[in-house]
Amino acid sequence: NAGVTQTPKFQVLKTGQSMTLQCAQDMNHEYMSWYRQDPGMGLRLIHYSVGAGITDQGEVPNGYNVSRSTTEDFPLRLLSAAPSQTSVYFCASSYDRKNIQYFGAGTRLSVL
Amino acid sequence: GQQLNQSPQSMFIQEGEDVSMNCTSSSIFNTWLWYKQDPGEGPVLLIALYKAGELTSNGRLTAQFGITRKDSFLNISASIPSDVGIYFCAGQTRTGNQFYFGTGTSLTVIP
Fold first, then answer.
1. How far is CA B5 from CA A27, A73, B22, B53, in A?
2. CB–CB of B98 and A97 under 8 A?
3. Helix runs in B1-111, H state only
4. In angstroms, how far is CA B104 from the centroid of its own chain?
5. pLDDT (tens digit, 9 = 90+) per residue, A75-99?
6. Strand-pair partners of A21
């Protein structure tokens, strides 16, 4: 069972570069979300989606874009990376917004 | 956003000891979740709580949904080395579209 799959696992970027973090789930979950995890700050919600074609902002959306063209995929785009975006990024999915979220293994991003 | 205060921030205990940690919020929550995160991995759900006063166990783990609906507690009995990791609480309000996470409790078990 694949569950929630995130790629890549590690990435190093230079300031100003762009990239897309991929997230896919095979559980037919409607709700998907992106978090960033920084030391001492727990998990903070970046963006979320309650279904294909619907996205909304979380607590820390600035500098990130998302789209949800299919139920399975929820990519996170950094248009112009900044050192403040150095973090560990987690994607999660759940049956709906009220249900338990299942997490991917994370993407560790460093912006130099 | 909602504020979730989780304590203690870290714990160093001897193998076999019991562990207690808690989480408090500034708002009333309808759902409390407890996750564990191993190094280099994503959080994995341990226990879910849906009702004020609810007490739920999962092996050596027991969690409670506080009666005020603004707090939750996690206890681990007879700790073992594989309990090492970071434990997170998460909560959601009745009308909310997201879960809010605590800052985590880092647990170290000394053999």
1. 32, 32, 8, 19
2. yes
3. none
4. 8
5. 999 999 999 999 999 999 999 888 8
6. A76
